[in-house]
Write a structure and sequence with these properties.
The complex is a heterodimer of chains A (113) and B (114). By secondary structure, chain A is mainly β. Chain A is 0% helix and 56% strand. In chain A, the strands form 2 sheets. In chain A, strands 2, 4, 5, 9, 10 and 11 form a 6-stranded mixed beta sheet that branches. The radius of gyration of chain A is 14 Å and the shape is globular. Chain A starts with a strand and ends with a strand. Chain B is mostly beta strands. In chain B, strand 5 and strand 6 form a beta hairpin. The chains are: A mainly beta (113), B mainly beta (114). The interface between A and B is medium-sized, with 19 and 22 residues.
């Protein structure tokens, strides 16, 4: 079945460094790739997304890149801050009328002050 | 993006009973989705709810255990039936999928079955 792999499962960086989280997907028909940030005890929050007709998208300190040929997409966070510490999930839409999302396994990001 | 109100936020239930979770969206949405999230784990899709038709369930989830209603374009309910301790989890609804906005989530329902 369709799946999304996410790496690494945990990531620790120093404040001010960059963080990169990578995902791969299996369904070649996937055309929408969102990233969510989930703080402890809270709902997942959409932080950035990209559609398949675009290779890169940036919003201030965060960016997402997409390689459709390789079925890879990545989240890049620059100038990390302690408040970036959270669990990050990637997701990919599964083709068809419902466009449901399949989620990666998550990355626990810890930004050390 | 759509704003979703979900309730209850938490509940402790006796095994063998049922709990119905409600989600209200502040705008009309075609699709709503129900997820389960075990502590420290990812989100697992239970089913997709389309207004006016029966929900579509993912492998491992069945309608008798998780009946879903979708009476209109702004509301959905998920019932967890005949609960056992293994059903203890966080349940989240989600809505979206249009071309102009992404998928947002309700605040979640933390269910404990004793």
């Amino acid at each position: 079945g369709e799946n999304v792999e996410q790496h690494p499962s945990t990531l620790s960086v120093q404040e001010g460094d960059s963080a990169v989280i990578k995902c791969t997907y299996s369904d070649s028909a996937s055309n929408y790739f969102p990233w969510y940030k989930q703080e402890l005890g809270k709902r997942p929050q959409l932080i950035i997304d990209i559609r398949s007709n675009v290779g890169e998208k940036k919003d201030q300190r965060i960016a997402v890149t997409l390689n459709k040929t390789a079925k890879h997409f990545s989240l890049h966070i620059t100038e990390t801050q302690p408040e970036d510490s959270a669990v990050y999930f990637c997701a990919a839409s599964i083709g068809g009328a419902t466009n449901k999302l399949i989620f990666g396994t998550g990355t626990l990001l810890a930004v050390q002050p | 993006s759509a704003v979703i109100s979900q309730k209850p936020s938490r509940d402790i239930c006796q095994r063998g009973t049922s709990l119905t979770i409600q989600c209200q969206v502040d705008s009309q949405v075609t699709m709503m989705f129900w997820y389960r999230q075990q502590p420290g784990q990812s989100l697992t899709l239970i089913a997709t709810a389309n207004q006016g038709s029966e929900a579509t369930y993912e492998s491992g989830f069945v309608i008798d255990k998780f009946p879903i209603s979708r009476p209109n374009l702004t509301f959905s309910t998920l019932t967890v039936s005949n609960m056992s301790p293994e059903d203890s989890s966080i349940y989240l609804c989600s809505a979206g999928g249009g071309q102009t906005y992404g998928y947002t989530f309700g605040s979640g329902t933390r269910l404990t079955v004793v």
